[in-house]
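Practice problem: predict the structure.
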Amino acid sequence: MSAASSASYTDPATKEAPNMTDVERGSAANSHLLNTTVHSLAWKGITVTVKDRETKLPKTIVDNVQGIVEAGEILALIGPSGSGKTTLLHHLASRPTNALSTSGTVLLNGVTPPSPRTLRSVTRFVEQEDTLTGALTVRETLYFASRLSSSSSSSSSSDDGAGTTSWQERVARIEGLLDAFGLRDQADAVVGGPGLRKGISGGQKRRLGAASQLITAPKVLVLDEPTSGLDSVAGWEVLIVVASIHQPSTSTLNLFDKLLLMSHGKTHYFGPVTGVAAHYESLGCRMPVHVNPAEFMLEMVNTDFAQDRESAVQRLAEMQHAWTRSRGAQELAAAVAVVEEKGSGVGHLEVVEQKPSLPRVVLTLLHRSFIKSYRDVVVYGIRLAMYTGLAIMIGTVWLRLDAAQESIIPFINAIFYGSAFMSFMACAYAPAYIEDYMQFIKEKRNGLYGATAMLVSNFLIGIPYLFIFSLVFSAISYWLSNLQPTTQAFFTWVFWVFLDLLAAESMVVLLTSIFPSFVISLALIAFANGLWMSVNGFMVPPSVLNVFYKYVFHFWDYQKYVFENMMVNEFSERVYSCAQVESGCQCMWQTDLADQCLIRGQGVLDQYGYKPGHMGRDVGIMMAIIVGYRLAAWIVLKLKR
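Answer:
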């Protein structure tokens, strides 16, 4: 019985299919998530041209390919490396292909989707190397994927409308997928990654990647070299499944309904899996008995290892030409034409896909990020250790400084060093953010959420941790160094350290979003921090800083406002004793207290041009800088494909 037909039969008494598995029960419970809108996916004349890496000339890697898959069918794409399988999959799923040009038509229900967004809204794509959050368990990965794709209701029924899933339905669906993909024993194991204990194996990650997309109830599932476990689940939910597969076993190949065989970007066969042997027999190439059909096909269309490459290429061209003149090619063209002629329209697809609201998505991402934050030491644990170590070092190097003039310059140095290096160490956030970024790109391409939800949740999850860092750092270093010993001054210091970290992390988010490579982003973050340190007013006082750096960088350097307000916090309300010499009293800064052998702290501030009373303005500027970084990052993520 085919996948489509088996999915349509139910026992009238129980309303369940006979001999239902757990996953089938989960699917039955989620009947409102079944595919009732997309009846066919067809494509014709698909041609993709890219720039050749070696010659830099245009190269066609998908050449006039056509095909059709209907609801309940699973299509296998087979071909040697470089045959264009992955590029075709990306094009069908409306994902980036780095193409110079593309042509051809993709049809949903026989008509061209009104926009790429429509196609993405009903399609899920599973990469060869899927991006997963290492700190989550297998069950949690499925749970959050489900939450991001559908709203939830408190009722046990699914009468709330399309896209609404009750808690019981969600749990049933998760448990069913765990069984279907052979992940039951690993359900509570973390996925694994740097800074975490050993996680699940690579093969299990591949299966989890497929399951995490299937749980979002796609209408079309596209997989780049998947593993087993799809046949029972996809068949029950009447999905359209398109999958590239590398050298499948005979039993695996027989699970597919249709086969698309490609080589050098061209079609060599499209049709039922059971018909490929007859096609090659008609070409005079009988398939040997007891030979894996997939291996036979790949050997027929692969020229990479041919001893006489020229004759092999000529023979391949003849076989491809024979396919274009075959009855199977004519039937395929006719089937695509019939579907296009009877096109039922897809204008309603985006209405049916009821996604969770923005606040609900943000809460889900916050929940997921919170779990990651306390399980994965790379996220915040390492930074807490770094900031604590920095605080101890500063507190013990600048230990118990006196309120005397010989301590003034050390106080200034401690203020600069503490604030600047707290900012600099924010680069340690880059690896954790890159993982979030890669997860976001995958989920954005699959239509789960956008840049707004990503950045809002990222900002909110960081606030309490950054405040804890500020408090721990200040509690250690501030009192050890004997900075202005008042409660108000201490919490003012904590506040500016907190703003410093918020701005630094926002800069990390922006630069890493532009260049999501740890090495490149780290280099840029280090350079940017070096620039901010140079022009923040410590190295060169603002009064003598050259015009270019003063007006181009100085006034939007967040470290400038942190350093200035920390200086005001320390010196505006404090006096320091002058040095006692034989002739009397010697003051390095001349203020109105010189006759008392004292230095008013404002005299120190005057050499930098700093005045108290501007804290409110500077806080506003800092918030504008932080928002500016986040807004710029939002634009970058919005433009990312």
